[in-house]
């Protein structure tokens, strides 16, 4: 692996149910502020969801907003914010929010990699609902249906908005999608196919009733009298998932390029792995999750005890959380120095965005030395006990140098990304 | 509807499709595409909205008749003279 270029994160653009930029999200994570709210959707009725409140018109016209999808809109917001945050501008393009000293990018050398859990359900449901009102007369079926539902839609909308002409596509990875986007971006930079990646994931899932109905049918849709307490991974009384929308795209660059332009560096992606359970449509397999974590750490050249913080995938389902903890227990044993937290307890499950968004909320730990907790754990499930769990109150740890970011998905896809702090003198 | 009302109906539909455009100064005789940003998908949207709001079907061969506000009014008047104007804004 020694010959591969080192790849670093130089910009973050995110839309989270509890923040529309990293500093807002971070503040809310440290202050225990949830982004889950009461929500209603046709056929399902009253339920809960993580809803984003960013301003889509910051980077889109009203016409583009009407023509595109919610996933595309979230992606466009995140992409523009990530470029601006990195101090980058596209050639001959005065993107709003960028600095006067911004470095100009060759649009053909920028790649866009957007992880998704699913895409097209929202528009298909909307269209069926609409033609139903016209007695299924397909003359009323929209000509926008295909461009809105093709799997590359969110990435393609980003290119239409920004004028990026490099390779841009979506990666279907169920709820591991966000990590897959990051990994694809890293690999394309290492291959020299591109000079800059916008990489991560998005989710528009709260706009499809089907995903709520299916989780409910599986007995996996969370419930609680208080919306902000529905999502409670590791709590003994947890009872299911909160479906959320969101997005997070990173600006990734090769370390030497970032150093050359004096970019701020959030961290370096030093390891990653993806594998498959090959076991079940829905149920996770701890052994394979464990192998995935180990392989990512091997690539990073780290022993388990050298991990400072694990950002877990746990979704607040009774079985899934226990399975993931058992996979981690084998790896970390009784090592209390490895802090373990969970972001879904604040924002629910942002599906295709989850891997990328949950990592983002933890990146500031490299600078501030704090670990945000898993909130809503009134009574820790004994089966979820691990010495390093950070529960309900943030913990000041001091030096945090490495984060292991976990994301797993249906059909048995497992992913892990390892990020390391880059000391300021190396920026 | 009168021809003037049909022009209002078309402008209202365009406002829905292209909400960023300023429609006050449109020259009724000039091609719409030369005055505001409208692509082929937008024209399909106009056709769809005519179908939904007024039950009017414009066959593909006649799409060219929707080029300007005046040509819209002339073409649509026989099809819409018995309909009521429905404005969304």
Compact description:
Chain A is an alpha/beta fold and 427 residues long.
Provide an overview of this structure:
The complex is a heterodimer of chains A (about 425) and B (about 90). Chain A is an alpha/beta fold and about 425 residues long. Chain A folds into two domains: about 5-260, Peroxisomal Thiolase, Chain A, domain 1 (3-Layer(aba) Sandwich); about 270-425, Thiolase/Chalcone synthase (Peroxisomal Thiolase, Chain A, domain 1, 3-Layer(aba) Sandwich). Chain A has helices at about 20-30, 60-65, 70-85, 120-130, 145-150, 155-160, 175-190, 210-215, 255-260, 285-300, 320-330, 345, 355-360, 365-370, and strands spanning about 5-15, 35-40, 45-50, 90, 105, 110-115, 170, 195-205, 245, 245-255, 265-275, 310, 340, 370, 395, 400-410, 415-420. In chain A, the strands form four sheets. In chain A, strands 7-6-8-10-1-11-17-16-12-13 form a ten-stranded mixed β-sheet, sandwiched between helices. A three-stranded mixed β-sheet of chain A has the order 2-3-9, covered by helices on one side. In chain A, a hairpin with a 3-residue loop joins strand 16 (about 400-410) and strand 17. Chain A is globular. With about 90 residues, chain B is mainly alpha-helical. Chain B has one domain (about 5-80): ACP-like (Non-ribosomal Peptide Synthetase Peptidyl Carrier Protein, Chain A, Orthogonal Bundle). Chain B is built from four helices and no strands. Chain B has helices at about 5-15, 30-35, 40-55, 70-80. In chain B, helix 1 crosses helix 3 and helix 1 packs across helix 4. Chain B is globular and about 30 Å long. Chains A and B meet through helix 2 of A and helix 3 of B.
